[in-house]
Amino acid sequence: MRSRTPARGPELTELGLGAAQLGNLGREISDTDARGAVDAAWDSGVRHFDTAPHYGLGLSERRLGAALARRPRTGFTVSTKVGRLLEPSPATAHRRDDGGFAVPAAFRRVWDFSRDGILRSLEGSLDRLDLDHVDVVYLHDPDDHWEQASTTGVDALVELRDQGVVKAVGAGMNQAAMLAEFVRRTDVDLVMVAGRHTLLDQSARDELLPLARERGVGVVAAAVYNSGLLAARRPPADATYDYLPAPRELTARAAALADVCERHGVTLPQAAIAYPLRHPAVVSVVLGARDARQSRTNAERLATPVPEALWAELADLGLVPDAPGAPGAAPAPREGT
Questions:
Q1: What is the mean pLDDT of residues 256-284?
Q2: Which of 110, 176, 200, 264 has the fewest CB atoms within 10 Å, counting from its CB?
């Protein structure tokens, strides 16, 4: 597994394991499958793991921490997120969580980007992960909280970074415009952009990616399958896009992308993973997995060479704006440990 080192922040393997599914995203998975996903990712060379309190009301962090407990702490990078405090809610513990995770609603999420809220959130994450530190902390989905997140939120994270508590700080969102504002106006090291730098949505290329490149801010690309539409060789009839039924025009475009991929001996998911990594601002792609098989599949897809002729044809057909980067334009990769 190859790694890239951003100008500001820790070395990251080109593939990271996103742990939302370890929090029972959409449906329950067993502890055995959750551990299997982490173990198989590790065996494939993955050393970059991303989680959040939001994912399963802490379940993702607990499962990830347990799976990493016997690994050498200096051998991997963990990122988590702040902005949603978990407050005990015994009155709703008999209900199902309404945040998209198949877990009991024993906690409620409270938006809080204050200094105290961030410190409390990180303390809770460290306890659930059973770690003495995490490497990267992101402000999580501050779409409706720009004023607080960009001031007290960033200031608290920078304070932690300057104290050596964390190595890098940033923001993670499902949009590119506000992330560009974080890069432009605040002292962040990394941003995680979900679903906006993919074969189907290149909106991060307009401003965020060039600005990040200019400012030396690393970009982690998440949700590169757009929640499912790019996850199979051919888009299924019931495919989702951004967790909703995929619009007909996007399904047709995904099918056209798959046609080109097939002509070049590449699958659509393989191209979906390779595409973001071609841009010189991108330092890692984060993919979720529910079990060992999915983790192994992710690593195999990353390892598959994608010919330059594929990108050229996609550009010629107008399916992508242009080839997202020239070979060798990205930061020089290093072999992971």
A1: 97
A2: 110
Work out how many domains the chain is built from and give that number.
1
- The answer to whether the CB of 14 falls within 8 A of the CB of 90 is no
Which domain CATH number covers 193? 3.20.20.100
Q: Is 244 helix (H, G, I), strand (E, B) or coil?
A: strand
What 3-state class would DSSP assign to 189?
coil
- Give pLDDT tens digits for 116-133: 999 999 999 999 999 999
Task: Decide if 50 contacts 286 (C-beta within 8 A).
Answer: yes
Residues forming the active site:
55
pLDDT (mean) for 160-174 = 97
Q: What pLDDT does residue 321 have?
A: 81
Q: Comparing C-alpha atoms, which of 83, 70, 249 is closest to residue 150?
A: 83
User: Within a domain: residue 221?
Assistant: yes
- Mean pLDDT over the full length of the chain: 94
Residue 255 CA from chain centroid, whole number: 25
Query: Within a domain: residue 332?
Result: no
SS3 62: helix
CB of 82 closer than 8 Å to CB of 118: yes
Per-residue confidence (pLDDT) for residue 110, from 0 to 100: 98
Token code pair at residue 323: 């080839």
Q: 335 in a domain, yes or no? A: no
